[in-house]
Amino acid sequence: MESKITDIKSALQPVKDGDTLMVGGFGLVGAPLSLIDELTKLDVKELTVVSNNVGEAGKGLGILLDQGKLKKAIGSYFTSNREVAKWYNAGKLELELLPQGTLSEAIRAGGAGIGGFFTKTSVGTDLAKGKETKEIDGEEYVFEKALKSDVSLVRAHKADKLGNLVYYKTARNFNPMMATAGKYVVAEVDEIVEVGELSPEEIATQHIYVDKIILAEQVLTKEGVVQK
């Protein structure tokens, strides 16, 4: 079997103009900061990013935003980066706002081969405008399409050499489901161990979903983002 362990530049070679990227993280916690940093060095544009938020001002995905590489952002908490509103109001960024649970389920559905689902969340609000609705058992529901990506960038704590992934506490957040919904998946990890060293009970993402593994070069600490 070809090794999934690679360097960061090689891992991102498949990313091209116009791709849809899923990027894990809640704020900067659980975000693949090394992979994002490498993306800022690539000559790519017109990207659609599916992520809970667009990083923070000048941090994480916020750097890609400042570079003008993002065409659209799909997420639920854009106010963590006030620059998003500036780009949107200037007509330079499309936004699709989804309630957080809806975002999570849409990604999960994409990974499970489900085309979409009906939910009560957003019924009667601006978020439901233009979307199909349906009455079920006397209550109104809104249809939400599943989300999938060309490339998913996820952050885990450990990987074995096959690509099985273990996450660290709440840094797990959106990462496992994004790994299932991507055509090509890169995992950024703190440590790579031998096959058999991870307990089956702690593996949240099975190796079949992971294409490439890289060691993290940047980590989030109480002092901020630092190089390892």
From TrEMBL:
<comment type="similarity">
    <text>Belongs to the 3-oxoacid CoA-transferase subunit A family.</text>
</comment>
<protein>
    <submittedName>
        <fullName>3-oxoacid CoA-transferase subunit A</fullName>
    </submittedName>
</protein>
<keyword id="KW-0808">Transferase</keyword>
<dbReference type="InterPro" id="IPR004163">
    <property type="entry name" value="CoA_transf_BS"/>
</dbReference>
<dbReference type="InterPro" id="IPR037171">
    <property type="entry name" value="NagB/RpiA_transferase-like"/>
</dbReference>
<dbReference type="InterPro" id="IPR012792">
    <property type="entry name" value="3-oxoacid_CoA-transf_A"/>
</dbReference>
<dbReference type="GO" id="GO:0008410">
    <property type="term" value="F:CoA-transferase activity"/>
</dbReference>
<dbReference type="Pfam" id="PF01144">
    <property type="entry name" value="CoA_trans"/>
</dbReference>
<dbReference type="InterPro" id="IPR004165">
    <property type="entry name" value="CoA_trans_fam_I"/>
</dbReference>
